[in-house]
Amino acid sequence: xxxxxxxxxxxxHNKIIRPMELDELKGLWKEDDKxxxxxxxxxxxxxxxxxxxxxxxxxxxMISKSILGRNFALxxxxxxxxxxxxxxxxxxxxxxxxxxxxxxxxxFIDHLSINKPDYSRISLIELQKSIxxxxxxxxxxxxxxxxxxxxxxxxxxxxxLKVHYKVSIYSNLKYFAIFCLSSxxxxxxxxxxxxxxxxxxxxxxxxxxxxxxxxIEFEKV
Length: 221
Prior knowledge:
Layout: H1 2-13, H2 19-86, H3 91-110, H4 124-165, H5 173-220
Helix pairs in contact: 2-3, 2-4, 2-5, 3-4, 4-5
């Protein structure tokens, strides 16, 4: 573009192009520059919109999983209470199961604050706040969620085996040893998997917050 303008100026100085024609060319340059700026701005807006859509999609997946997990906590609570009521007189099995069910109920209530925002009405700043609040909530409850699930699993398994298979784990040394060993293995797997999952969620949520911050700054310009 600069070389073309230089050549045209030389032509003007050599009187090959008249002043009126040069003014017309300048007008065309300005018009082309304006069109180019508009196309660049439009492309930037489209890219930002795509980034926002990806952010919303990723956030919606994570919050949907959390809501599903919260609802399952209530299901586990009810299941434990029903099973415990069947052999309520056998306190060795029923009391721990009730304690596990209450822990699940507490987890369900604690996660009631998780709700999907209305993406069609929410502003960018409000969406960013929702993601930030969800990330803080998830990070603060991660350890409790793992502990509650393991507590429920340890209290529910003996009860289930007792009711359905008439297997008394606590009165059989072999079964009790197998149960303890399997519980340790499951606990290690659950903790390992959950930590990686929560770290991944935390990283993605931070990236989403950063992307929204860029979009907000872009719209201010």
